[in-house]
Write a structure and sequence with these properties.
Layout: H1 3-27, H2 35-55, E1 67-72, E2 76-82, E3 86-91, E4 97-98, E5 124-129, E6 132-138, H3 143-146, H4 156-169, H5 176-186, H6 189-194, E7 201-205
Antiparallel strand pairs: 1-2, 2-5, 3-4, 3-6, 6-7
Length: 207
Amino acid sequence: MAPIAWGAVLFDCSSFQRLVTRHLRKCNALATMDDGTIADWIDEIRERINATSTRAGRRPRDYAATLVAAVIGPESAVIAHVGDGAAVLRSRETGKWIVPSWPFHGEYASTTRFVVDDPQATTNLVYVEGVFDRFAVFSDGIEYLVLDYRERLAPADLFDRFVAPLVNSGKAGRDRKFSRRLRTYLDSEKVREATDDDTSLILGMRG
């Protein structure tokens, strides 16, 4: 992914996180994050990107980025999704991993939806009830490597192996040593031979 696209990714993430935090401080309930609320947030992010692109003398499309957001509470979760990539969650009760929102791909290869789509980004908002103790969020570069498209599921054995180092570490917050190991693996020749796109992966757990 080009540096300018990375700038859009960071812009999306920091802006969306700020909006979610502000909303939950007022409402303190994930169910209040409805379609209208998410649409307003995406509009605000898109307008900020448009203003940034104008100042830089570029097109908003130059800052095109997708969005995968997982907001996980004690007894429910909300997935806000624009484009490809995905978030998967593990049920504490069943041990199964679910894919609340599947990656979107257009008619042609490597086409999808973006936050900067005009007049409005197409956002998939999914509210799921349950206690989720593990999660993974990843970009389009590895979705075909980690999702079973034939069965439309997230292989539990694969994702359990991914998060096992976090479960065993016992550390709270970011595990920098594990992050470096994960980055080395994602940059490895084995992975690069399977994909030439972005290979971002975020893993997390809760007690």
